[in-house]
């Protein structure tokens, strides 16, 4: 009975060992190892010997195997079954075990290289199963960044670290659409253990039908740079829009100022013509009539009264009508800028010393062509000088004013300076006629600078563009001095 039990146990162990070897050798790897044939045949012989030995104890089975305990039965059991069987098993393992050990060593070396590669990667590496999406491997960098231990991550799945996870079926369908080895790229948002989130760029691929590896990169900095670029682009676009709007407003303001100045000059010109052509002529007629009455009157008293009336009318014509007419619109400018400025000096307070410094070449060129300087520029320059000198008379308490006029680099340049008490330009930004001075210069495309300091006088410099500049002209060269004391 003990023999039966021992033989049965041996048969079960041998059969189980053979089945185990076949089961653990996935994809036929067992049969690719040298010595597998000897192991299988030897196991079959030993199993056969055990079966024969068991049948000895059951006479009813002898008829189907070997009848009786014979010499042939003993030979088959002891020699063929046990001796040859164990010899073949031993020989098989002799060939097979070194190869298995070598493969295990190679696998260990490969696993070491694999671990080194994962740990040295600058990104977060995850290996997961495709069927349940659970992690099977992770590198240290990922553990550190996500705030989990390796054991915690290996107990989690892909869906556990996503902020808005897809369903298991959606992820599985994504895997099914791509073959093994093809790279898949997606963007999303992951979360750390502490609940904080960060944007990620995920590149993953299937290693086989069971496992997939994912390379995850935190793109927070990249997103910040992209957002900054986008904000900068939006701000730049907004700045361009605002700049265009400001430019349009500036142009409209410039056009509006020009219309106002031109309208004012038009009214002044019309009033000047009416004074000169209407009022003045009528006054002249009255003077002539008074003079005729005086000739036909013999009474000395009446003659004296008529002479007084005639003199008063001539005074009104010369000092009031003509002066006001000239101030409203200097018709002498039609003869050129130089005659206009000379006429302007005649109406200035005699107590103020005025120096007029003109570029000689400009004077000569304007004599040859009195339209050399455009009418709008002549009028603007005249108004700037007129307003500046008026300010000196009214506010500067100056003893002398110097006017310099010349042409250079395609522009007309005017300067008016005085030795008055001056003012602080930071505190006095407008008033004293400074606004109108700048307006006259700017409406014709020119510019005006006002420099003044308390007790150091004032200097006003205006530049006007010329449509055609007198060739070879140079400011303050071969100047003509006109000095009036």
Topology:
Blueprint: H1 2-24, H2 36-55, H3 59-62, H4 71-120, E1 124-129, E2 135-138, H5 140-146, H6 150-154, H7 168-177, E3 184-191, E4 197-206, E5 211-218, H8 220-295, H9 300-328, H10 337-346, E6 353-358, H11 360-368, H12 375-396, E7 400-408, E8 411-418, H13 434-442, E9 447-452, E10 458-465, E11 480-484
Parallel strand pairs: 6-7
Antiparallel strand pairs: 1-2, 1-5, 3-4, 4-5, 6-11, 7-8, 8-10, 9-10
Helix pairs in contact: 1-2, 2-4, 8-9, 10-12, 12-13
| Uncertain stretches of 5 or more adjacent residues | 104-108, 468-485
Give the tally of structural domains.
4
What is the ordering of alpha helices and beta strands? HHHHEEHHHEEEHHHEHHEEHEEE
Shape: rod-shaped
In a few lines, what is going on in this structure?
This protein has 485 residues and is of the alpha+beta class. The chain contains 13 helices and eleven strands. The C terminus is likely disordered.
């Amino acid at each position: 009975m003990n023999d039966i039990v021992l033989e049965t146990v041996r048969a079960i162990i041998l059969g189980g060992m053979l089945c185990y070897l076949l089961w653990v050798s996935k994809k036929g790897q067992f049969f690719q190892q040298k010595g597998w044939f000897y192991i299988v045949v030897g196991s079959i012989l030993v199993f056969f010997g055990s079966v024969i030995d068991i049948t000895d104890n059951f006479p009813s089975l002898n008829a189907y195997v070997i009848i009786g305990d014979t010499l042939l039965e003993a030979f088959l059991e002891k020699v063929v079954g046990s001796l040859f069987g164990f010899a073949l098993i031993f020989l098989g393992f002799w060939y097979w075990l070194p190869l298995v050990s070598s493969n295990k060593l190679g696998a260990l070396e490969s696993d070491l290289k694999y671990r080194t590669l994962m740990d040295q990667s600058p990104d977060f590496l995850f290996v997961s199963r495709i069927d349940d999406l659970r992690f099977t491997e992770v590198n240290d960098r990922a553990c550190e960044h996500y705030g989990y231990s390796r054991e915690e991550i290996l107990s989690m799945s892909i869906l556990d670290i996503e902020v808005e996870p897809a369903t298991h079926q959606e992820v599985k369908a994504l895997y099914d659409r791509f073959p093994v080895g093809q790279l898949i790229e997606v963007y999303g948002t992951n979360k750390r253990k502490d609940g904080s989130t960060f944007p990620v760029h995920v590149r993953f691929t299937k290693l086989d039908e069971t496992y997939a590896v994912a390379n995850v990169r935190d793109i927070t900095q990249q997103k910040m740079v992209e957002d900054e670029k986008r904000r900068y682009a939006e701000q730049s676009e907004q700045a361009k829009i605002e700049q265009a709007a400001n430019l349009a407003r500036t142009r409209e303001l410039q056009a509006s100022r020009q219309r106002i100045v031109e309208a004012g000059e038009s009214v002044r010109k019309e009033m000047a013509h009416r004074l000169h052509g209407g009022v003045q002529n009528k006054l002249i007629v009255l003077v002539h009539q008074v003079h005729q009455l005086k000739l036909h009157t013999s009474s000395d008293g009446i003659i004296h009264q008529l002479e007084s009336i005639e003199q008063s009318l001539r005074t009104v014509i010369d000092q009031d009508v003509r002066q006001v007419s000239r101030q409203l619109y200097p018709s002498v400018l039609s003869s050129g800028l130089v005659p206009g400025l000379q006429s302007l000096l005649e109406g200035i307070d005699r107590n103020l010393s005025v120096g007029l410094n003109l570029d000689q070449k400009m004077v000569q060129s304007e004599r040859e062509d009195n339209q050399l300087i455009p009418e709008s520029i002549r009028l603007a320059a005249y108004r700037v000088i007129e307003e500046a000198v008026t300010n000196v008379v009214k506010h500067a308490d100056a003893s002398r004013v110097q006017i310099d006029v010349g042409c250079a680099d395609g522009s007309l340049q005017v300067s008016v300076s005085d030795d008055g008490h001056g003012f602080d330009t930071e505190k006095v930004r407008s008033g004293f006629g400074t606004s109108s001075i700048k307006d006259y210069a700017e409406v014709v495309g020119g510019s005006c600078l006002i420099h003044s300091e308390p007790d150091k006088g004032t200097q006003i410099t205006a530049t006007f563009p010329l449509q055609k500049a007198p060739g070879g002209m140079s400011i303050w060269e071969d100047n003509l001095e006109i000095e009036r004391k």
